[in-house]
Design goal:
The chain contains three helices and no strands. It is mainly alpha-helical.
């Protein structure tokens, strides 16, 4: 089992289905709540990607 900061920890968080998923991608949802939920899901993914990038070493050549 990987440690707390290992890749297993990151993957476990990346593949969670957010609570907004049924509203964002459900078949019978009105347009405005669907748009807001999809925006929230995408924003969450973006912030998560920024957090992951912040913890990776960056090297310039």
């Amino acid at each position: 089992m990987p440690d707390r900061h290992g890749s297993g920890h990151m993957l476990r968080g990346m593949y969670r289905i957010p609570a907004l998923w049924p509203t964002a991608y459900g078949p019978r949802v009105r347009p405005l709540p669907r748009l807001l939920a999809r925006t929230a899901v995408r924003l969450t993914d973006f912030v998560r990607a920024l957090a992951v990038a912040d913890h990776r070493p960056f090297t310039t050549l």
